[in-house]
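Quick one:
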Amino acid sequence: MTNLASGSAVSASEYQLKRARKAALAAFLGGALEYYDFFIYATAASLVFSRIFFPAGDPTVALIASFATFGVAYVARPFGAVVFGHLGDKIGRKNTLVLTLVLMGSATFLIGVLPDFTTAGYWAPALLVVLRLMQGLSAGAETAGASALSTEEAPEGRRGFFASFAMSGISAGIVLASLAFLPVAAMSEAERLAWGWRIPFWLSVVVLVVAYLVRRSLEEPEVFEEKHDHGELVKLPFAKMFKTHPAQFFQVALMSFETVTNTFMQSFGLAYAVSVGVPASTMLWVSILGNVIAIASQPLMAWLSDRFGRRPVFIAGVLGSGAMIFVYFSVISTGNIPMIFLASTLITAGTYSMSNAIYPAWFSELFNVKVRYSGMAIGLQIGILCAGFTPLLGTALVGAEKANWGPAAWIVAASSLLAVAGAVWARETHKTPLRQLGNPVR
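Output:
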């Protein structure tokens, strides 16, 4: 009997590990698609869209308008968080994640077939905004859903590690997007503006198909199924979350400002570097190097948080990013290519990875399973919404004076301090059993 029981325990453990790995893979692929789509848009907004979707005129004004279309998706993200967060807490994580995946992939492909301003006039930027809003609705719930599912499927004591693969997927998506844009950057300007920029958008179909097939084969986490089978789910998770977890919501909202670092570097940083004479292809390689290393460094940082706690690793990373951003813009302004590579990699694969890898598990752990998807999705979008408009703000503050990079760095530093405040306020959760996470919800 003892051997039989032991064998059964091992079998159950292996089954749980298999489910955890599958959930992590699904999160990785979903993150890759989301940020492949978002990063090719950020790259195109920095390098191309101001030239083809808007009337000719002041290039700075056109760039600001282009970044405004980039930011409009961040306005849609909170609405996506509410709608899909509700569905995720009512009908389940799996089906909701499949829906967000298809919405994101479809919008991205359609951007690649839009007519330009010369052909369609003001219909061109209008349609661009509509599709960008679709991307935003999807992205508002993608990371939260993948993080919740991975956290709920992970073995005890390893939630940070398994949930972090959503972030490694995001790094992989940025790498894929950068690689997709390298041949575009090497084209003649006429070819790039005429048709070359469309290719990365069309290629998103490949990632979409692979991610869809994996997600369709997922199962619902047992901790969610238990509540579903016993009729314990709440009617309005969004409203219930605000009633039962108000502090956790504001903690996540503050900590989500850590995302400003990456958004600012990948959009404003690219445009700023090109404006001071650094080739766009060089900056794409800078992004590739940092994110390739981050694919591996983020699970390592998350593993450290499983051992030593979420709070110390998160705070160290956020403070490090807030300090390093001054070095980053300083070396870009001098055009020192080796130092640009070094500074960017230290942030992307180092300090930013320390905070970014931890939030999928930590934010999820702050909420009860009944409102987890809604709580994380909506709270996360507060900082991300602000992050979406920081490139526009940075462009407006820096203006045509290329040596005036200080305001851009201070935007990131201030955002980092907000994230630290949230982390100090939030409870430590890395040792709390899965079924005891969050406040009671009745």
